[in-house]
Amino acid sequence: MKLKNYFLLLLLGSFTIHADSLPAYNPIILNLATMYDFDAVRGNVKSIHSVIKKNNGEVTYESELALDKSGCIDSFYVKNLTIGYSMTMRKATEGLLGTEVSDMGNTSDTVLKLNSTCQIISKTDKLGALSYTYDKNGLLDKAINSKTGDVISSHKSNSTGLPIKVEAYLSGEIYFKNILEYQNEKTKPFDYLLRIALKDKIFRVVKTYVSTTKTLTQLNA
């Protein structure tokens, strides 16, 4: 598997996982948000449409997720203009089938296989295959190269399900590490400190706020 593309998505994805207050997260939504960088929301929702804009109103990110009556993924679309990436997926017998397009115009057919509880257990595209493991709470734990068995990344979440640490590996060593600290995850989930440690020892601290608009429909509506 070509790891550069995966690390780019992983790095940017771990910047913008957000939360809403009140009900618990659906782990299916939270894990997909961790993998593909969109707004995770709490509660029993049927669909989520998220748009992220700059201060000047320019759209930099858009995603749309639809769930079926059982709370499983029915379709998913994401477009990240910052890195020139888009993905369109729809549920089929094999799992989720779709197409990914990179900033270089490269297109790849993609298959996400699901287990009986709708967790994504593997991803296969033209770069190779990844398999995923989950912790006792059903949250993403590791991404593994299916061919070699090497751990590509590990993920740690806090008690509410928000990511607090991501480590990516190359040749068995940590390639980069992201550590997130939320100042008040219930009332100000967009305000957090992000510490990024790269392999060449560069270290920086970032405080991020992203303006997001969301349209939600309840699953039981």
Give the overall average pLDDT: 78
Strand tally: 15
Strands ordered across the widest β-sheet: 14-13-12-11-10-9-8-7-6-5-4-3-2-1-15
- Per DSSP, the total helix count is 2
Biggest pleated sheet: 15 strands, antiparallel
Radius of gyration (CA) equals 17 Å
| Beta fraction | over 45%
Uncertain segments are 1-21, 207-212
Structural class: mainly beta
Distance between the termini: 42 Å
Topology pattern, helix = H, strand = E? HHEEEEEEEEEEEEEEE
Helix content: under 10%
Which oligomerization state do the chains in this entry correspond to? single chain
Shape: globular
Could you explain the architecture of this structure?
It is a single chain. With 221 residues, the protein is mainly β. The protein is 10% helix and 54% strand. A hairpin with a 2-residue loop joins strand 7 and strand 8 (128-134). It starts with a helix and ends with a strand.
Quick tags:
15 strands; mainly beta; 15-stranded antiparallel beta sheet
In short:
This protein is mainly β and 221 residues long.
Produce the secondary structure layout.
Elements: H1 3-13, H2 27-36, E1 45-53, E2 59-67, E3 73-80, E4 85-92, E5 95-101, E6 107-114, E7 120-125, E8 128-134, E9 140-145, E10 151-157, E11 163-170, E12 173-184, E13 188-198, E14 203-208, E15 211-218
Antiparallel strand pairs: 1-2, 1-15, 2-3, 3-4, 4-5, 5-6, 6-7, 7-8, 8-9, 9-10, 10-11, 11-12, 12-13, 13-14
